[in-house]
Amino acid sequence: MFHRSHLITSLVASLFVLSCPLGSLAEEATAKKTETINVFGEGTLSVPADFQRTKPKSSIIQHEFVAKAGEGDDAKTARVTMMGASGGVEANITRWKGQFAGGKEEDQKTEAMELGDWKVHLVDVNGTYAESMRGGPFAPGKTVKRENYAMAGAIIAHKQGRTFFVKMIGPQEVITKNRKAFVKMIKSIEK
């Protein structure tokens, strides 16, 4: 038996749904959430909601995300990887730059900044990327040349000496579109 209270509740709910703009319901249903990454228990990074978590392609990567330029299945993507690492700041910046050939000289930049207890080194490089198809930075393997690629990278060094690496590598247009969000994420370590 259908009670009168159920009928009233159903009518009120229907009127509410009809009175809401369809766009706002769709936005709420597909709202993206930001994610927070813990960095050595000393700080956090706020990952942009547009960066979608994915399974790391390598066991040495702690966190991996996908950044896009465009919508749909055919949108170009870049890898955003995060991991604690060592080996010295300058040596790693040199290694990262060495993975690229060519590119515009004015786009090859390195910037250092102090953010609270952290010293951050931002690295921008582009050109033809020599992507290593192997398990780690020191294991031999096949290399694939990727033209018109770029990297926005960051080495985040804590005053106690530990370093955390964050890199976004992919087609130049994807890096250009997402660089501002990447830098904002890196600067969130200060909060």
What would your notes on this structure say?
The protein is of the alpha+beta class. The chain has 2 domains: 30 residues; 159 residues, Protein Transport Mog1p, Chain A (3-Layer(aba) Sandwich), CATH 3.40.1000. It contains 4 helices and 10 strands, in the order H-H-E-E-E-E-E-H-E-E-E-E-E-H. The strands form 2 sheets. Strands 3, 4, 5, 6, 7, 8, 9 and 10 form an 8-stranded antiparallel sheet that branches. Strands 1-2 form a two-stranded antiparallel ribbon.
Q: Give the terminus-to-terminus CA distance.
A: 57 Å
Helix content: 25-40%
How much of the sequence lies in strands comes to: 35-45%
SS element count, helices: 4
Largest sheet: 8 strands, antiparallel
CATH class of the largest domain: Alpha Beta
The ordered H/E elements are: HHEEEEEHEEEEEH
Global shape: globular
Name the quaternary structure. Answer: single chain
- CATH fold name of the largest domain, please? Protein Transport Mog1p, Chain A
- Total domain count: 2
Q: Please name the CATH architecture of the largest domain.
A: 3-Layer(aba) Sandwich
Which residue ranges are poorly predicted, with pLDDT under 50 across at least 5 consecutive positions? 5-30
Radius of gyration: 22 Å
Summary of the model, kept short:
This protein is α+β, with helices and mostly antiparallel strands and 191 residues long.
What labels would you give this structure?
single chain; alpha+beta; Protein Transport Mog1p, Chain A; 2 domains; 8-stranded antiparallel beta sheet; two-stranded antiparallel ribbon; signal
